[in-house]
């Protein structure tokens, strides 16, 4: 059978987020140095590396929670290097926080409805009565169906299993209709079955957006991610698909003696 043509066409995944020469110093300590990244629509990109490699700092730089010391960041073709975090979130670069981002005493449905009325993903308008959110119910139900939580929509979020809380948290992030979704250790603390469920959801939500994730579970990275960037001491050690990165001697050495799998 003929191999697919390698020429660029309309199907070629486009770069939606890119960084060039990203650097961040903390009082003379260089936490991130000369990092280049290209994140593509429809792809899942993993940022991995030993503890202290600079992964969280890169996330904070991309989302503009931290200002880079040097380098540039482009989102959807626009330079966002000096843009405030709220504006970047409104443009579609959204970071999924941990479980603490959900409201345990609200129902699953109300968690998503509240997320749908957030103007920029960073603030919740608590003064609005929940009844004012009724018009958001159809969209909230659609999102819950997309992540397989429709059957528990009237449960209190706090009563969900750990894995399903993570899924709800992803659904509240999807409410912001991100073009680029940043996931910070989505499998942290999860049992085996939950990892499978959350992997399936991440794969399906990546169909129509770009996903960048920090993940320590290398089995998940191997299974889920199209492209991997390995950081060590703030710099890119290697980049490529899982097969090439996992065969890289420098990567193997970097992981030796760490707690990673
Ligand atoms: N606000 C800060 N002030 C000073 N140093 C910092 C600050 N934030 C991070 N660092 C340092 O920068 C380096 C990179 O930290 P970062 O948290 O980005 O690594 P990481 O790869 O996310 O690590 P982990 O896997 O442990 O979460 C570490 O040495 C850390 O101590």
Characterize the biggest β-sheet. Answer: 6 strands, mixed
**What is the count of β-strands?**
10
CATH topology of the domain at 13-85 and 218-255: Rossmann fold
The rounded distance between the terminal residues' Cα atoms is: 38 Å
- Write down the CATH class of the domain at 13-85 and 218-255: Alpha Beta
Strand order of the largest sheet: 6-7-8-3-9-10
- Helix content, binned percent: 25-40%
What is the CA-based Rg, rounded?
A: 19 Å
CATH superfamily of the domain at 13-85 and 218-255: P-loop containing nucleotide triphosphate hydrolases
Query: Helix segment count?
Result: 9
- Rough shape? globular
Q: Percent of residues in beta strands?
A: 15-25%
InterPro entries: AAA+_ATPase (IPR003593), ABC_AA/LPS_Transport (IPR051120), ABC_transporter-like_ATP-bd (IPR003439), P-loop_NTPase (IPR027417)
Organism: Aquamicrobium terrae
Domain ABC transporter: 17-258
GO molecular function, one term: ATP binding
